[in-house]
Amino acid sequence: METELEAAFAGTITQGMEIVAKSEKLEAKFIRESVEKGEIVIMTRKGYGSLGIGKGLSTKINANIGTSPIVVDPIEEVEKAKVAEKFGAHTISDLSMGGNIDAIRKSIFTATSLPITTVPIYQAVAEYQSLHKVSYRNLINMIEKHTEEGVSSIVIHAGFTLKMLEKLKNQRRIMGMVSKGGSLTAAWMIEHQVENPFLERFDEILKILRRRDIVLSLGNSMRSGCIHDLKDEPQILEIKMNSELAKKANEQGVQVIIEGMGGHVNAAEIWKYVKYHKKIIENRPLFVAGPLPIDVAVGYDHIAACVGASIAAGAGADYLCYITPSEHLSLPNIDDVKQGVIAFRIAAHIGDSIKYGISERDLELAKRRRNLDWAGQFHYALYPEKMISLNLQKNEACTMCGTYCAIKTMDKYLG
Ligand code: SF4
Questions:
Q1: Domain that holds residue 175
Q2: Between these two residues, 3 and 390, which has the higher pLDDT value?
Q3: What global pTM score does this model have?
Q4: Per the domain annotation, does 45 fall within a domain?
Q5: Over the stretch 302-323, which tens digit does the pLDDT of each residue have?
Q6: Alpha carbon of 398 to ligand 1 centroid (Å)
Q7: Residues with Cβ within 6 A of ligand 1?
Q8: More confidently predicted of 145 and 398
Q9: Is 183 buried (19+), middle (13-18) or exposed (0-12) by CB count in 10 A?
Q10: φ and ψ at residue 129, rounded to 5 degrees
Q11: Domains: count for the chain
């Protein structure tokens, strides 16, 4: 089977490229050329469709769901998947680490048509219950199993070495390493006293991914865990290493997304950091978690992160991982997933208005607002259901100003 990247190299426009071109209202030729350069990836969910992520396309958002070792409610995870899709997530990551993980992943597959991403080391560690018992073979087998089951992408944390962990130890960070996948990988390396397993077996992993054209997502282990932890040497080394790995993967016909910059970043730095990351990774798709521009919004982190993500998307981040109100506090419940997706769908739209200019949709809504045309506004609003629930007076000035409606007053005096 030829991958999207191999087809692009050969000058072929695939069905996936056609689908992405149509949904983004772009030329298929542009999609092929961008796939060839590694600037756009096409995630395919077999039997459902194709999703483009990358430069020149609308910003995409991901919702993380899945059980934890402490909270296991498979039915709720299915509902989270449905809610995430309903409110506008483009992809779902199943990060389950508790219960019957295979069965949970299967039911999430059934509940949604969205592309699914997993982090295979999570399940490997959860099932063996001890880092020491997990072998290279277990990690590789887990990757293979997830790809056979139909995930559209997998995450590995391959961009750091033992030497870089030493450097991390010597940094004056407050939060150290906060990536779960990164910390599990690092702990595994230290337990076994060996190099990064994903780096060591990178070629083997590429062969597995190439076989089914699964997108490789290179994890962001060294991201900052608070806004006082600035961009430092481990972060820079990791993004450079991930960029080199991405080149190698692309040469083998494997499409790559690079996770970077996320976590917690002072708002004043986000724009500059995104530009820096995009340059290092040669415009490959950049996936950013958040970022959170402040640390004190706990309980409302989805709102703070919406601001950070809007700036990041505007600066060129292609793919945003949502943050929910329960960030740093607990496993998100169904409503948290909904709030996180809504906040990030809005962030993506703001980012696109910076990247590509104000949308027709915003213009059309404004025209209807001017005419107090509520039905028209519902049509163009991102979330009409919410709008309907708040607007009690259809076809008239709303209850905010009532008889003193500014629009009606000015209509009377200025026409
Ligand atoms: S009543 Fe006030 S808020 Fe409502 S539509 Fe008129 S001007 Fe806008």
A1: 61-356
A2: 3
A3: 0.96
A4: no
A5: 999 999 999 999 999 999 999 9
A6: 5
A7: 372, 397-398, 400-401, 405-407
A8: 145
A9: middle
A10: 60, 10
A11: 2
